[in-house]
Amino acid sequence: MILKRLQHLPRWADPFDDGGQWRQLMGDIGRKFYDEPHAGVFPLLNVAATQDHYIVRAELPGIKKEELDITVSGNNLTLSGERKIMAENNGARYHRREREAGKFSRAVSLQGPLDAEHVTASLKHGILKVVIPKAEEAKPRKISIL
Amino acid sequence: MTETEIRAKEKKEVTGQAEQTKPGPVFTPNVDIFETEAGLTILADLPGVTAENLDIDLHDDVLSIIGNIMEDNEPGENLLLKEYETGRYIRKFTLSDVIDQEKIKADLDDGVLRLTLPKIEKAKPRKITVN
Questions:
Q1: B residues 34-63 closer than 8 Å to A (CB)
Q2: Contacts of B54 in chain A (CB under 8 A)
Q3: Which of B5, B13, B33 sits opposite A104 (nearest CB)?
């Protein structure tokens, strides 16, 4: 599965999905006793797998594709870049400032050999989606009995 | 380190809203609000929201932003790691009467909404020339 470089282990998906109620209840309880359910490194990631590939998603609103670097080496996927928030001129007075700017770098390790040649990524409406095919030898295959 | 790094923040889930009838979590988007002489600007992070799925509603001086998202799950997807939840975004703002409600403008670009709320003419400061 996925190895983290930080001691804060991420929360794994709940197989008993009832629309999130159980998750929310357990999350509320869990947060009182344990650490935050994620690695604490921006951007937060959702990772899914199909038989043939991994799909990594992140929310990156306002980030242009030129400002984002995606590298796959070995079993690792690294996302790094900088989120820039344009300075407003005309002596703007801020009432709220919740959006953050800055540099980021995030890595995840995926299981098994990856086909780094055929990775595709899209950045649409602030959502990054990286599709990483598993290497041929890592794909499950059906064995027919002779 | 001299350069700032972005901290990972968990999305703020809205709880205890009696009027929620649709299932699924609802989040409060992060916003920047600033004021200039010409008006107010609201910038809101709405990742995953497209123009068709965004409702901006003005009613009784309350401006509501409601963003719906489309899940794009592929068949046979098996979730391995979930660090963030997805769901709708809702945030409401009460406008003061210096805002010209007829002239509010909205742009959505890369998941960031920019709302421009100009002030009505008489609320803008002006220099009076002495003859």
A1: 34-38, 40-41, 43, 45-50
A2: none
A3: B5
Query: Would you say A100 and B6 are in contact if contact means Cβ atoms under 8 Å apart?
Result: yes
Phi-psi region of B69 (alpha: psi -120 to 50; beta: other; left: phi over 0): beta
CATH of the domain at A64: 2.60.40.790
Tokens of B8: 């990972």
- Residue B128: pLDDT band (50, 70, 90) is confident
Eight-class DSSP state of B47: T
Q: How far is CA B60 from CA A35, A37, B20, B112, B123, in A?
A: 42, 40, 20, 25, 20
ipTM: 0.83
Pair of tokens at residue B45 = 């992070």
Q: List, for residues A36-54, the tens digit of each pLDDT value.
A: 456 678 999 999 999 899 9
What does the block give as tokens for A131? Answer: 């599709």
Give the tens place of pLDDT for each residue, A74-129: 899 999 999 988 887 778 889 999 999 999 999 999 988 899 999 999 999 999 99
Q: Do residue A73 and residue A118 come from a single domain?
A: yes
Q: Tell me: do A81 and A126 sit in the same domain.
A: yes
Q: What pLDDT, on the 0 to 100 scale, is given for residue B53?
A: 93
Residue found under tokens 């300075």: A87
Q: Give the closest residue to A110 by CA, choosing from A62, A50, A59.
A: A50
User: How many separate domains does chain A show?
Assistant: 2
